[in-house]
Amino acid sequence: MFLMSSEYEQNVGKLIAEKTEKYESMKNDPNVTKSELESLLSEIEMLEVLYENYNLGMNYFRRARGGRAGLRE
Questions:
Q1: 2 close to 16: Cβ distance less than 8 angstroms
Q2: Residue 72: CB atoms within 10 Å
Q3: Is the pTM of this model over 0.70?
């Protein structure tokens, strides 16, 4: 699903997987309300946005000429 390289990306990826698994089990439960499912789906979407935004920012940083080497001087 997601290519992970940092601890942040790993943790957000784990949360996405856990919430998705929870959502799949909850949507088959007749005792779960529609608002609970929508709330969980909203959390999953938010986590995916956080992951993508972080990844886009880091990709720019990682591709920058010199990358982290210039920060250590």
A1: yes
A2: 5
A3: yes
